[in-house]
Design goal:
25% strand, 833 residues, alpha/beta, 21 helices, 53 strands
């Protein structure tokens, strides 16, 4: 049997380790990652190898040659341009005429390949995937297979809400040559994203072999590289090891020099020619590769040092990675998470602070303290994006330097000469950070249209209206005045998708920013009359008969919350000629953030004023002009679901049969409302970005909304827009001559409850997998989390994308039933951990 070893990986997330070598050539303890794969193949009698190459192909060819020195025979298939994981194997199709194995050259594994091949032969399928349970499945293809091993579900790199298992694709496959029918020649094609989903869609024989005993990890990030090294040294990987155990858990390959008073606490690997001088202390797991010298009284703690490097007298390394031919001089201190690229010199007494990455061939001055990456900066974040964009504490997580780099990373995703519209809320903190982002964008050759401070929905609309290629909004978090959110929009003003987020993250964490030449630097301009462009589109979406019905017949109380909606909506209301009483209409950045108590006091004031003035309704905006909070004509405050249900009732009553989209956690009362008018309810994930993307794809929908005060009317523009939403509700009420209190009184009743339960990150995938297995027969549509059908009741178990916990939603026959359900399933989630 032949094996195809995919070794074209660039390893961008491992930089700076992979600047001078492809990812499969990164040394892991005693040999390169790809060499470990060759040893695994030999263990199972596979010696005919085809290696696919692209990035720095010559480095691998020079190391392995024809394979004879390693006990195998190697043929190479080199791509001129990246063809993807499947396209690269298609490139070697002429060498494969029988069932063959495909394995990644940049993973560490001891999977039983013989058992995999036997399983594949027994099932007679077109493809068999080796599967593994992992603690964090988000970066892999997640799979569910039935009792017979047949794959039934497949999703590449899901979000937490989409997750349905912790069983992932390891990148190890047994394939029949007929699989090449699914791959177009000389085209970039991926196994997980393209080929396997297409096979699943055509009901082809696609099987999964779950390996429970074997070790597997993708050496894809610096953290995973450190963990894989530690696991290998601890003996968790059943692969041949170089050298011999000289005592305890200390392994050495060839000749080494160890001073008699040196203290070595394993597990440790020492390469040939390594020298450990007097008074040195080494704590494992640590690797000191060939010809590296650790000088007197130095301390090495849980660190990896590549070959030909020197660590000087009294120096300290703690949880660090040091590349090839580096010179760490006396009394230098290198802290946790630091990565030092090849041929770098850290001079005497220098201190490298945690999580700093230093690119190859750099010089650190004597006594210097390096707190950021040597060139562009460091960031020790778990991920850059959360549900509200890029979020963090002002001047701690989100600093001006951070923002300049973020702007450069985002700008680099566009072509030179593109335009990005940038906006902020009125607070002085976003003003500072917006200006920092504004410096990063032109450095990447991107023009900036600065519209200063506008409500978020207006800024979203203008991105499309002025023909910008993207947009940015910087705001003070509505949940915490110490926190800032940086939100990114696509060319339509919709939140960017996950693929774009990953692209920005990749550029940001690699510090691989595009720097253009002097005459290509982007320009900063200040577009004029932008408010009028928005207002013109606004009125074009309102019926003329509604304008007549509202004029002089409709009274409204508006609380602007001292935010920038007061700069646009008053003009709109004046043109509508409706009676308006304004509250908190003065622009005041000191009052932009309010505590929960202050918000409740403002709502109580609104509830008291509306009935006294005989207004049709009262509304309060959030600071961004997106959410609205309603009070009906009798002074009663509507809950989030009541507001959405009232909007749905009014819309369907006015327009007849149509489609309304609500989140997957919405009560079934919406179906009852739709039935009254022959309408349809569809469900979306319970997050704002997904709702807007859904609305953008379905402009024919009448309404999209949630329980947080977010309403989208796609016929105008598919974004959450509180300004348009309130005028649209006025239109619907005026045209039908209805009172909001009467609409609310006629809504179907529902009984909902929710709770939250803690869950460690590494257990989330396991919990989702077990729930999917246990409730496979009672599972409703899987859109965001797992929704379980209980007849007249239901429960939704939804993993939080940003925190280590689950949300439990339930709808019951009564409030008490709903609470019992949430308590029951919260306990279940706890027990499954």
């Amino acid at each position: 049997m032949k094996a195809v070893v995919m070794a074209g990986g660039e390893g961008s997330r491992l930089r700076p380790l992979t600047i001078n070598r492809p990812k499969p050539m990164v040394p892991l303890a005693d040999r390169s990652v790809m060499w470990h794969i060759i040893e695994l193949l030999k263990q199972h009698g596979i010696t005919e190898l085809i290696v696919t190459l692209q990035y720095l192909a010559n480095v691998i060819q020079d190391q392995f040659g024809d394979g004879s020195a390693f006990g195998v025979h190697i043929a190479y298939s080199v791509e001129e341009t990246p063809l993807g994981t499947a396209g690269s194997v298609k490139n070697a199709e002429h060498l494969l005429d029988a069932p063959f194995l495909v394995i990644s050259g940049d993973a560490l594994t001891d999977i039983d390949l013989t058992a995999l091949a036997q399983f594949h032969t027994a099932k007679g399928g077109l493809a068999t995937l080796a599967l593994k349970h992992v603690s964090n499945p988000l970066e892999f293809g997640v799979i569910i297979a039935d009792e017979d091993g047949r794959v039934t579900q497949f999703l590449e790199k899901p979000s937490w809400g989409e997750l349905f298992s912790d069983t992932v694709n390891t990148g190890v496959y047994m394939l029949d040559p007929a699989v090449f029918d699914y791959i177009e020649k000389e085209t970039a094609v991926d196994w997980s994203k393209d080929v396997f989903p297409a096979m699943l869609a055509r009901d082809e024989s696609l099987f999964g072999y779950v390996t429970t005993d074997g070790y597997w990890t993708d050496v894809g990030t610096l953290q995973e590289y450190m963990r894989a090294t530690a696991d290998y040294l601890a003996g968790k990987v059943k692969l041949p090891r170089a050298g011999q155990c000289i005592y305890g858990e200390v392994w050495a390959e060839g000749e080494t020099e160890i001073a008699s008073d040196a203290q070595l606490h394993g597990p440790i690997f020492l390469g040939h020619g390594a020298k450990i001088k007097t008074g040195v202390v080494v704590y494992g797991p640590s690797v000191i590769r060939d010809y590296s010298v650790i000088d007197a009284r130095a301390t090495i703690d849980r660190s990896i040092i590549w070959r030909n490097s020197y660590v000087g007298e009294g120096a300290e390394l703690r949880g660090a990675i040091v590349g090839r031919q580096c010179n760490i001089k006396s009394r230098a201190v290198v802290f946790e998470g630091v990565v030092i690229g090849d041929q770098t010199v850290v001079n005497r007494g220098a201190v490298i602070q945690p999580d700093v990455k230093i690119w190859p061939s750099k010089q650190i001055d004597e006594g210097a303290t390096v707190a950021t990456n040597l060139i562009w900066g460091s960031q020790g974040r778990r991920a850059l994006f959360g549900r509200n964009g890029v979020t963090g504490l002002v001047n701690v997580d989100i600093t001006p330097e951070f923002c300049a780099k973020l702007g450069a990373a985002y700008g680099g995703t566009f072509k030179r000469g593109a335009t990005v519209l940038i906006n902020r809320d009125a607070h002085y903190t976003p003003r500072m950070l917006k200006r920092a982002i504004q410096t990063g964008l032109p450095s990447a050759g991107v023009n900036v249209g600065d519209v200063r401070t506008l409500p978020i929905p207006v800024a979203r609309y203008l991105v499309h209206a002025i023909g910008a290629d993207g947009g940015i909004h910087v705001r003070l978090s509505p949940f915490d005045s110490r926190v800032v959110d940086v939100k990114f929009f696509d060319k339509d003003g919709i939140d960017i998708d996950t693929a774009m987020e990953r692209k920005i993250e990749s550029s940001f964490f690699r510090e691989d920013y595009r720097r253009v030449y002097l005459d290509e630097i982007g320009r900063i301009t200040y577009p004029r009359d932008v408010e009028e462009a928005y207002i013109s589109g606004f009125f074009a979406a309102i019926r003329k008969q509604a304008l007549d019905a509202i004029a002089n017949n409709f009274n409204i109380v508006v609380d602007y919350a001292n935010a920038n909606a007061s700069g646009i909506l008053p003009d709109i209301l004046r043109r509508l000629r409706c009676g308006t009483v304004e509250l908190n209409a003065i622009f005041d950045e000191a009052k932009l953030f309010q505590t929960a108590q202050q918000f409740e006091e403002a709502m109580d004031q609104l509830m008291a004023i509306v009935p006294v003035l005989h207004a049709e309704l009262g509304v309060r905006f959030d600071t961004g002009g997106e959410k609205i909070f309603l009070v009906d004509n009798q002074g009663r405050r509507l809950t989030g679901w009541q507001m959405l249900a009232a909007a749905a009732e009014l819309t369907l009553r006015c327009y007849g049969a149509g489609t309304i989209a609500v989140p997957v956690n919405a009560p079934r009362s919406f179906e009852a409302i739709a039935e009254r008018y022959g309408g349809t309810i569809v469900h979306t994930p319970a997050n704002l970005s997904a709702m807007m993307q859904h609305a953008a794809q379905h402009r024919e929908y009448l309404l999209v909304g949630d329980s947080s005060g977010n309403l989208i009317f796609p016929s105008f523009y598919p974004v959450v827009d509180g300004l348009f939403a309130i005028v649209k509700l006025m239109e619907l009420l005026a045209l039908q001559q209805l009172k909001l209190s009467d609409v609310v009184a006629g809504l179907p009743r529902y009984h909902m409850a929710r709770t939250r339960v803690a869950c460690r990150w590494e257990n989330k995938g396991k919990v989702m997998r077990i729930l999917n297995e246990q409730y496979a027969e009672r599972k409703l549509e899987q859109i965001d989390g797992i929704k379980i059908d209980l007849g007249g009741e239901w429960v939704l178990v939804q993993p939080d994308p940003d925190g280590p916990f689950f949300h439990i939603f339930a709808e019951g026959l009564s409030d008490e039933h709903a609470r019992v359900l949430t308590d029951k399933y919260a306990a279940l989630v706890t027990n499954l951990q």
